[in-house]
Amino acid sequence: MVPFCPTDDTNAGGLAISNPITIEVCVDSYEAAQAAVEAGADRIELCSALSEGGLTPSFGLMQIACQLKVPVFVMIRPRRGDFTYSSDDMAIMARDICMVKELGLAGVVFGSTHSHGRLDKVGMKVLKTAAGSLGTTLHRAIDVAPDALEAVEAAIEIGFDTILTSGQARKAIDGIECIASMHEKADGRINIMAGSGVGPGNARQLVTEAGLRHLHLSASIRKKSDMTHRGLFADADNVYTRASVDPELVQQTRDLAMAALGSH
Questions:
Q1: 183-225, pLDDT tens digit by residue?
Q2: How far is the C-alpha of 180 from the C-alpha of 21, rounded, in Å?
Q3: Could you read off the pLDDT of 12-40 as tens digits, one per residue?
Q4: What phi and psi values does residue 45 have, to the nearest 5 degrees?
Q5: Is position 33 within any domain?
Q6: What is the three-class DSSP state of 127?
Q7: The domain that contains 209 carries what CATH number?
Q8: What range defines the domain where residue 159 resides?
Q9: Radius of gyration of the chain (CA)
Q10: Were both Cys, which of 16, 28, 140, 225 would link to 50 (CB 3.0–4.6 Å)?
C-alpha cells in the first residue's frame, strides 16, 4: 500500500519550483506522469479522461501520485460537458478537494461558470476555502467567459494562484494576443499559463510575444498495447493503444522556452 503524503507538504502551490520557466504536463495515468517527470516536467496536472478535457482522477491514482518528485495538481471536474454546475456537483468537488488535501498533494485545478458564462465567484470561493493552503489553478472555464480580462480580475479576487488558458481560442497560439492581454492585466498578481496545443513549435513565441513563464502541455503519444491476442475489439485501435508522454516533446519545449527567455 502506498502511504499518504505528509500533511506538511512543502510543495503546496508549487512554491518549491525555482526554474524561471514552469513546464506543467497533464496526464491521466501514472505511467504518463512518471515519463513526464523523467523528461523534466516541473509540475503534473493529474486527471482522468484527457480525451474529455480532463476529469477528476481516481483515489488510487491520486494516492500513488504522492510518490512523484514534483508538485502534483489534481483536476477537480466531476463530469464531462460544460462548467455550470449544480449544488450536488459543487458538493462533490468540495469533497474531492478535501481528499486531495488529506493526501497532501500540492494543489487543485477547478473552475465554474454561471449559465451566462461569467465566472461563478461565490461557488468558487467556497471551493477555494475548501482548498485551504493548496495551490489553486483556474482551468479553461475562463475561455468560455464573455470577457477574458474581467475574468482575470475575478480569478484574482477569488484567490487563484494561476490561470490556465488558451486565450479563448481552440489553440493557445491562436489566442496569443488575448493571452498577452491577460498577462498584462494580471501584472504579476496571478500566473498566466498557456495550454492547448503548446509544444516545441510555439514555446518560443509564447514566451517572447505573450511574456509567459508558465506553459502547459500534454506531449501525448499513443503507445501500442502489450496484448498480442485481439478479440472482440480487434479493429478498434483505441483499445489496443494507450496514451503516454513523449519525453522529447517535454524536453524540447523546455529547452526552447528557456532559450527564448535568455534571448528576450
A1: 999 999 999 999 999 999 999 999 999 999 999 999 988 777 7
A2: 16
A3: 444 456 789 999 999 999 999 999 999 99
A4: -100, 115
A5: yes
A6: helix
A7: 3.20.20.380
A8: 19-223+233-263
A9: 18
A10: 28
In a domain, 4, yes or no: no
**What are the pLDDT digits (tens) for 130-185?**
999 999 999 999 999 999 999 999 999 999 999 999 999 999 999 999 999 999 99
Phi-psi region of 246 (alpha: psi -120 to 50; beta: other; left: phi over 0): beta
Query: What is the torsional sign of CA 147, 145, 213, 12?
Result: positive
CB burial of residue 237 (10 Å; 0-12, 13-18, 19+): exposed
Cell of 114: 454561471
- How many domains in the chain? 1
How many whole angstroms from its chain centre is CA 30?
Answer: 15
Cα angle: 13, vertex 40, 9; to 5 degrees: 25
Asked if residues 45 and 26 have their Cβ atoms less than 8 Å apart, the reply is: yes
